[in-house]
Amino acid sequence: MLVEADGGARGNPGPAGYGAVVREANTGEVLAERAEALGVATNNVAEYSGLLAGLQAAADLGAVEVEVRMDSKLVVEQMSGRWQIKHPGLRPLAAQAATLVRRFDQVTFTWIPRERNRHADALANKAMDAAAGKTDPPGNGQPVGKGQPAAPAAGSPRRSWEPPATTPTRLILVRHGATELTAQRRYSGRGDVPLSDVGLAQARATGVRVAALAPSVAAVVTSPLSRCTRTAEEISAALDGAPVEVEPDLVECDFGAWEGRTFADVRAQWPDEMDAWLGSTEEAPPGGESFRAVATRVRRVMAMLQKGYPESTVVVVSHVSPLKILLRDALGAGDAFLHRLYLDPAGLSIVDTWPDGGVAVRSVNETAHLA
Residues annotated in the binding site for substrate, as ranges? Predict the structure, then answer.
């Protein structure tokens, strides 16, 4: 996808706002717009704010590769690593942008002249007018003063305490039931470990819970590993035979040399490697797969589900790592979230998504059905 972003202030600092546009790279079709009045701020803060809004919109739409186009030489050069970020007020914004960048497989930054950035520039100017009290904010009928955000531009989801009234694609996320390795607290990645007797009972209880939540399910989409496919079959049976579809991209992270070992053993034998893995989603276990690579797979699945099952309910049966990444993205959380969230065997979460990028996380790791 392409992200075009701009921002400005009238007075520097002065009434400020930003605009951002996300386009489909091949056709140029506009997929999302963002615009907001910022109150009083500087040009550079507004430009970085436009970048953040554009990257977040692209992430919400499931982009994997992004080209950012801006007429701000400063932002392009700083985000490309060629210029230092000397102003202390810009460093937190640049750090937020860097965190968003890590959610994609590839991000490039390109400087373009202002005349080639007209769409984002126009959105930013409307937002600046709103910040100055000269016009209504984009997409809203109320004036905006200092510190009060404008509504998003047409075509983007409005901020609200309530989800949209239209029917979402609802994802019921299920971790597979317990295995013998689960009870022994061992890394269980690509090894095809079956459900234990406890895990099978958990899968059946989860099927009953899913049937109570959503009697009409379009499909049960599952990782190819047997601990997931058996869980999916039990859920399907509780739903009177909902179709089960195997999706290879839902497979667990490859833990490489750590596969089958206890957490304590790995900490003892690979302390430096574990610290690096816990510290960055770009690091992988020896011979294994990074969480960033897992995220690429998960986002492909999300895009497929949103396109293939509009306004439908889908059960997704997978493993800890893919489900944590999906929930992290849905909540717009940072990477630390991955090591702070616990997902029980056969735990259940619910995420609603809309075509415009709107997301509502309704529950995380429900386990009452397992009591």
Answer: 227
Assess whether 319 carries a catalytic annotation.
no
Among 4, 33, 36, 176, the one annotated catalytic: 176
Question: What is the extent of the structural domain holding 52?
Answer: 2-131
Task: Report the alpha-carbon distance of residue 31 to residue 11 in Å, rounded.
Answer: 32
Contacts from 193-196 at CB under 8 Å and sequence distance 24+? 193/225, 193/226, 193/227, 194/226, 194/227, 194/230, 195/226, 195/227, 195/230, 195/231
- Counted domains in the chain: 2
pTM, two decimal places: 0.64
> pLDDT per residue over 307-355, tens digit each?
899 999 999 999 999 999 999 988 888 888 898 999 999 999 999 998 7
Q: Tell how many helices (H) and how many strands (E) occur in the chain.
A: 11, 11
Token pair 């506009």 is found at: 30
Q: Does a structural domain hold residue 161?
A: no
The yes-or-no answer on residue 252 being catalytic is: yes
Question: For the residues 88-104, what does the mean pLDDT come to?
Answer: 90
Residue 177: CB atoms within 10 A of its CB come to: 29
Maximum pairwise Cα distance, the chain: 69
What Å distances lie between residue 116 and 60, 111, 112, CA to CA? 25, 10, 6
Model pLDDT, residue 355: 79
Rounded to 5 degrees, φ, ψ at 243 are: -60, 140
Choosing from 116, 131, 146, the residue where a domain stops is: 131
